[in-house]
Design brief:
The chain is an all-alpha fold. The chain has 23 helices and two strands.
Length: 502
Amino acid sequence: MSILMDFLTVFLQPQLLLLVGLGTFAGVYVGAIPGLSVTMAVSILISFTFSWDVYPAISLMIGIYMGGVYGGSRTAILLNIPGAPSAIATALDGYPLAQRGEAGTAIGVTTVMSFIGGFVGIGVLALAAPLVSDFALGFQPRDYMLLAVLGILLVGSLSQGSLLKGIFAGALGLAIGAVGRDPLTFAERFTFDIQLLEGGISFIAVMIGMFGVSEALLQLHHVDKDAVRQKIRRIVPSLTTVRKHLPLSLQTSSIGVIIGALPGTGGDIAALMAYDHAKRVTKHPSRPFGEGAMEGLVAPETANNAVVGGAFIPMMTLGIPGDAVTAIMIGALFIHGLNPGPMLMVDQPDMFWFIVGCLVVANVFMLIFGLTGIRLFTKIVEMPRSVLIPLIMLLSIVGAYAVNNAVTDVYWMLAFGLFGYFMRHYGYPLGPVILGVILSRLLDDNWRRAIISEREDLGRFFAGLFSSPLSTVLFLAVIAIFLSQTPLWSKARIRKKRHAPQ
């Protein structure tokens, strides 16, 4: 009975309900603006709420977190500018749908599927948090490294054409992510003795430039074309559509929960892995992937929202943040006199169930706010290009500057926008570049940690790949995915089909 009352606390107090609702509403629109991250919004909130009681403060933060993860899909679909890194995969099929006049349908599907993914994550948090956290603790540095390698191998899914171009783009992203001071030795890498490069290059500036500015430059070729009229017949997807995509959404939600529970990972990796999974298991997509496939929206959106529940699992059970936002929330709990970790579950189980209740309410508000204002939002796509192009540039400049309040990031954004324009013009995919930048640090840090833990002995490192079932499974998955993207694999499949009995 006590657990039920703790869970229902947020439902029974109008003030807390209002705060969760306000936070979710703000999160949806903060997440939709490139460069204004959820992490930034939650960190700013700490300075405003440190004098509040713990329940109202946590309610507002959870609302912003849940709304912000979803909000990044809005500009990804409408303008091909992901509001957050976790929406990169959403843009791959969401923007083509907007160009077809189906932006309303795309936003409706992403909202409902985000709602489903959010509930899967919350359900796992509520029912199986200790089990999932024990599994996440089993990850060694070599396992994180293999996970990053798996992510890099997704270039085949993101290249949508030549695999060699995808590999080149992914390698370029890894090189960009490595620019700056080495985090372990503090030695300079790829700086060419230029002081400006010592701090590295903001991946947000790279992402906004590659997607936003390059899109504006491409649109200059079509300034005289009429804008695509959006067909807003039905926003809420039919029950048949939801039922059709439910198996895929449950599969990709499980990917999101597991990735979310791994400290240091996040929605961007989960969404890209889910997108790759959808491409592999969907035999008959609604359209080809990259041209407006609904499955290409379902997979990343369910995964990145399931990450929210997953990220709270190590935070609540072990005191280890699942991502940047939960790291800030741990700080907020400390400020309010609480100690996140195993003893929190024993000494103050009311806080655990209160957070679960807040997540449920925030997920419901996300569905409500996500399905409202769509007709108004889709008017953005219908603007004349003479208005739309300056709007894209303005959003891109504001987003790049807002990350570090630095004009330098704006220059980087413009430079990578120009570079991205030429890449798109010559058929090079942009997704692998951003993926490489994001995964560069995860791969680099954990490769070094793995080697150091094996006393810099490569023989021991490779032997360690078979010392635990988890490492072995990940290593075999890397080999299998690598082989599946080679021409030999495609030829073998064609030969198998030819010789299959009719």
